[in-house]
Amino acid sequence: MEYILYIILAIGGFFIGYWIRKQKALSQIDSAEAKADKIITEARKKEKEVLLESQDKALKIIEEAKQEEKRRRNEINKLQERLEKRETAFSQKLLELQDKQQKLYDKVSKVEEVKDKINKIKEEQVEKLQKIAEMNKEEACEVMFKNVEEDIKEDLMVRIKKLEREADETVESKARDLMINAMQRLVSGYTTEVTTTNVILPGDEMKGRIIGREGRNIKAIEQLTGVEILVDDTPNTITVSGFSPLRRHIAKKTLDYLIKDGRIHPTKIEEAIENAKKDLAVDIKKAGEEAVYEVGITSLDSKLVQILGRLKYRTSYGQNALKHSVEVAHLSALLAEELGMDASLAKKAGLLHDIGKAVDHEVQGTHPEIGRDIARKYNLPQEIIDPIETHHDDHPRGLLSIIVKVADAMSGARPGARHDTYERYMQRLEELEQVANSFDGVEKSYAIQAGREVRVFVTPEEIDDLASHKLARSVAKKIEDELKYPGEVKVNVIREMRVTEYAR
Hints:
Layout: H1 2-133, H2 137-185, E1 196-200, H3 205-211, H4 216-225, E2 228-230, E3 237-241, H5 245-261, H6 266-295, H7 302-309, E4 315-316, E5 319-320, H8 321-338, H9 343-351, H10 367-377, H11 382-390, H12 398-413, H13 420-437, E6 442-448, E7 453-458, H14 465-482, E8 490-495
Helix pairs in contact: 2-8, 4-6, 5-6, 6-7, 6-8, 8-9, 8-12, 9-11, 10-11, 11-12
């Protein structure tokens, strides 16, 4: 019985719990639905509020847009009114201008009518005069001019001659003053270039070493440098003779190297000559820089300065070309200052006026033409190119060219500056070398012994022994036909074959 009671109680408890749970669940559902209804109600309320706010904002925006449109319409109306007023004013002015133009046209027409009347009256008067004088206008003018000319001819001639004399005297006086002032402000000395250079020896025994066995050393030096070495009884001195200052300088430097080294033989001679050429290149560059510094010119190309330095070893009628160029630069600057021109430009033109002489032995053409090409190569201005090209012309281009030409003449015309015979002598030697170099196969040639001998070095691969004899006769024949010279000229063709190999 107890088990049955327990079972009944358990079943009863189950149903009671189930009913309590169900009631509780129903109460919770009712509570959730209530909350949901509340939320929905609040949401709808907020929705209405948002809609109201949106409607208010939309109305405000529409109102503002209407106000803005109204304001812009007002502005447009005002602009339109202004434009209409301006258009009216322009129309009024245009009408006034048209009226003025018409009035001017009317006045021009009246003036033309008056002019025509005056011309008719003038023609009538001229016809009347021609009838009375029985001659036309041209004949009357001619008669009048002849009469006036005869009356005052003598007075005119006297007056013209007086004016010409006064003008000539004034111009000559001013030109003389300019030149004298420039020459007085520039003081420079002259050293006439000679054709010999002395080399001091440490002792007379050195002469024998320089000559060498059977003269091989002195012959090698003469052949390689193109000069003549004179060994005489002068104590501790030998003389290097040659018309080219470049060759004399190289020969002197070579002898200085050999004397200092003490070893004198053909191989050492060639090495000394190469060293002398290197030193010469340095000396040429230094000479150009010193000349530029002395004149006070800047911004010149370094290669142009080096070409300028070569003028140190170039002479013109016995006058050193570099010193002459420096002097012309100073004189040009002084003359330009007197005439109120650019002194620095004149100085540069004067310094470079003979630049073509630095390479005229290597390039065909006259030195003004060569100088013009060099100036163009280094982009010099046309104001400088003109004096370089035309300083020897009868009609130089521009006032600066005239200044450089005058300065060039002043520098060369001073007493003792130049010697015509020396220049002719050098020109003759140069012509001898040019004739020899004009033949094919000639490597180099040197005129020595004051032009009495020409040594011609040929390329052994192109000229054989038989061709050397023919070449000597051809050179001698061409010298006879083309050149003028005293006495006779010996043509010495030298063909030397060298083969070098090294044992390693």
